[in-house]
Specification:
It is built from four helices and three strands; from the N terminus they run αβαβαβα. With 116 residues, it is mainly α. It has one domain (5-114). It has a three-stranded parallel beta sheet with strand order 1-2-3. The protein starts with a helix and ends with a helix.
């Protein structure tokens, strides 16, 4: 996945063609994405639909997550965060760590927004 171009095109089409309200779209984010990965977000046209970016890689360190969060925020003013995919294949003993990482990610998102 070289960038979010396909996700943006699919989201634009899905929202435009939907006969009902679309509450949110999810877009997976690769590990350590560079600015070019997020650039297609400039073409996102889904007014009223929230975006959740799959920025939370449960085995990344906090500094890497913060860098990705900051980069994504330079392309979108408002977005939620999520894992890049489901966790059905994660061993159950790892789930406490996965959930803890999500909680830390949410704390970081809140801190970054408080600083605006």
């Amino acid at each position: 996945m070289p960038d979010l171009g396909l996700c943006v095109r699919l989201s634009n089409e899905a929202v435009a063609r939907s006969q009902r309200r679309v509450d949110y779209v999810h877009m997976p984010v690769i590990r350590r994405a560079e600015a070019e990965f997020f650039t297609p977000l400039n073409d996102l046209d889904i007014a009223g639909t929230r975006v959740f970016l799959g920025l939370i890689h449960h085995d990344d360190d906090p500094a890497t997550f913060r860098a990705q969060l900051t980069l994504a925020a330079s392309y979108l003013d408002d977005f939620g965060i999520a894992g890049p995919w489901g966790y059905g294949r994660v061993p159950s003993e790892n789930l406490p760590d996965v959930l803890s990482t999500h909680a830390l990610g949410l704390d970081e998102l809140r801190r970054s927004r408080a600083g605006r």
